[in-house]
Each structure stands twice: as structure tokens, then as C-alpha cells.
Amino acid sequence: MDGTRVRKEDDKKEKTEDEAVQLRREIGLLPAVCFIIGSVVGSGIFIAPKGVLLNSGSVGLSLLVWALCGVLSMLGALCYAELGTSFTKSGGHYTYLLETLGPLPAFLRLWSECFFIRPAVASYVSLAFGRYVVEPFFAPCAAPTALIKLVSILGLTIVVAINCWSVTMASRTQVTLTFIKMFALVLIIVPGGIALARGKTESFQNGFEVDSFKLDTLPLAFYNGLYAYGGWFALNFITEEVINPNRNIPLAIICSMVTVTVCYVLVNVAYFTMMTPAELLLSEAVAVTFANRALQGLASVIPFLVAMSCLGALNGGIFGSPRMLFVAAREGHWPPIFSMIHIRRRTPLPAVLLLYPLMLVVLLTGEIYQLISFVSFSRWFFIALATSGLVIHRYRFPNHRRPFKVPLVLVVTFTVVCFFIVGLSLYSDPWNTGMSSALTLTGIPVYYVTIYRYRLPHRLRRIFDYFSKHLQILLEVTQQEVQTF
User: Fold this and answer.
1) Which of 9, 308, 434, 472 has the fewest beta carbons closer than 10 A?
2) The whole model's pTM is what?
3) Confidence at residue 12, expressed as pLDDT on a 0 to 100 scale
4) Residue 379, Cβ neighbours under 10 Å: how many?
């Protein structure tokens, strides 16, 4: 009898924990790999080869830039694997800056992510999606800009709705779209490999002639390449939702980044088997030009596959970024309403919904390409700060538990290279890097007024609390009932 009573009490306890409102660990190894690949492979590999070639000056050097960007991204991903297994909270950059360098750098990263990095990146990818969906119906004429924006908004809205509805649905969507985009890459690599085997090597002869090479444009070549690799840190946003993170985070990062780097280099080799450097520079959509020459029967499929690739990158970004707001609100650096999740859907609904109108505003205003230019500066500056924080934290807390540890020389090398690229960009593009710095620094007075000293007027606090309470009721959200880190 006593044994039966204990067993019933245990079952009741287990059921209670299972029904608790929390972000559940539902991301296994395959979804984790797909989440990283799906976040990395967007429109970049189908568009960026033009920018890399233009700024590097030769075929050989452009391929070297692609390979080095892959190696650099792999080093950064390994550093973030150590950070992700050392600090078990979600939130990515924000969490690591908070734990290693303190609240101000963390808040500034949060500020820039919320108000210009994520809206700019999401709007850019959404527009690429809209362009590749609409333009085939109007070729060879130009597609209406209003229609492209309308389809872009539709794609963005669908992805936001999926992420509001269910973590499982968003995860399955990411896995499906990742397989579609890998099929698109294979569809480019295989014909290119066949052409190369048949002797199509004209573009590679004298591949390292660098008549047009200029040192001041080399950082821009790396920025174009690194933008195509952007997203390798995506899994760190959702650490608390990964099953067995100490094993799956490093494994997922290594598998995904090796796959992406090899595919990217092979895709660029394939491009040059069908196009001369001059033809590639004249192409507005490199993948479509390639398909028209190498896959004449399937040329119409490529725009659809690129659009699906953009949708996958968009889904990865919108899945991960709200977790940064969620964790920041839990730490007291953002309004508490954003640390709440839906009582039935178990999604961070307020955090997702906050980003949606910001992304729409940037998409509709059309100031996207200027924003993208200095998004890279801010993103890489804070990544360099985070890995610097890793070195400092190792020195200050040598006994801290680190299930996965990267050799110090790799961490230092990655950090130095990041600061070097950021420093060169100040010389190459001082206007956009200056604007990026200025926008980021606008977060300092906000931090001191709302967090460091919290000097908001009492009436303003009461109004804010009133709206937060009613918004919580309207959205049916509440704080997590179980600690997940």
C-alpha cells in the first residue's frame, strides 16, 4: 500500500512538472544541425559571390576568401560552443556578454539587436524572398516594387505566425526548409562538378591575377563572405531548449559548419565553370544565371528554391532572436512582459510580437541596404567582445565548469582577426561604421535611466504597469513555472 501511494505521488509530481508552463527541451541533434544550416544558408550564397569577387579582385582570391570565411566562422562557432556549454542560459551574445563583461555591453548588444540588427536582417531576407517569388512571373520586365514588398510582408507574417503558434512546428518547418535548400546547393554543385571534369577551367587559369586588387576593399570582400556565413551562432539563442546541450551543441556546430563551408566553396567553383568573372560581376542573380546555362530544363525551379532558402533563414532568425529579449527581460534588462510565455503554446509570444512591427517598419521604409552595410560592423564587434570575455572569464574563473573547451590559441586568433576586420572597416567604410557605432551608443542613456539608476517618473511606471497587466491578460502569457537553466 505504501509503495503504491509513493508511486502515485511520484506520478502526480511528474505530471505536474510536465504540465508546467515553460520552454521545453524539444530540439534534438538533427533539428539543431538544421537550425544552424537553415539560419546560415539564406540568400547570401546566391547573391554574395558578386560582392566577394568584386572586392577581392580575382577568382583564386575570391575562393580563398570563401574558404577563410568558413574557417573563421568555424572558429567563432567553436568559441560559442564553449560559451553555450559553460553558460546554460539562452540568449546568445547577450548572455555571454552579461556573464563575462557585465550588464552594459550586454544591454548595448540587446539594444542594437532589437532596434536595427534583427529588423534590418529580417527585412533584407524577406525582400529577397519576395523578389525571387515575384520576378519569374514578370521576366524579362521589372517586377512591381509594391508587389515584391507585399509578398515579402506575407512571407514574414507567415514565419512570425508559425513561431507564435508552436516551437515544434517552427522546428519541423526549419528541418523541411533546410533539406530544400541543401537540395538547391546540390543542384548547383553537381552540374558544376561535371563541367569541371569535362575541362571547363577557363576561369581558373591565371586565377590569382590581382590587377584590380586593393587592400582597402579586402575587408568588404570578407564582409560579403561573412554575411553569407552569418547565423552560425543561432543555436546559442535557444540553449535552454536543446536536448542534452553539452553534447548536441558542439556536435551540431561542427557538423553544420563543415557542411556549409564545403558546400559554399564547391558552389562558387561551380559558378566559375559556367561564367567568366566578368559575366558573374554583371549578373544580378548569380544562381539564376547559372541555372539558365547549366540547368535549362530546371531553370525555373531555382528561383523557387532560393525563395524557400530565404524563408528558412528568416525562420531561424525569428526563432532565435526573441529568446534574447526573453532572457534579458528575465534578467531585469527589458520590460517583464517579454519574459512571459503563452500558457498553452509555450512560445515567447510577447518577444516575437515586439520584433514583428519593427521588421515591418524597416521593410516598408526601404532603408534596408544602408542598414545592412553597418549591421555587419556592429555584429562582428560584439562577437569579438564576447570571445574576449571568454578569455577574461577563463583567467578570472579557471575552475568554472566547461564541458567543451577550445584551445586558447584558437580563441585568441579568432578574436584578433575579428578586431582586425572591424578596424579595417573603419578605414574602408567610415560612414556606415560610424553610424553603426552612433546607433549602438544611443542605448547608453537608456541603460542608465531605466536600469542602472531607474529614474522613471512614478506616474509613468504606473501607466506602464497598467498596460503590461492588461497585455498579459490579452495575450494569455505568464512567467515560467520551472527554471530551465
Assistant:
1) 9
2) 0.88
3) 43
4) 22
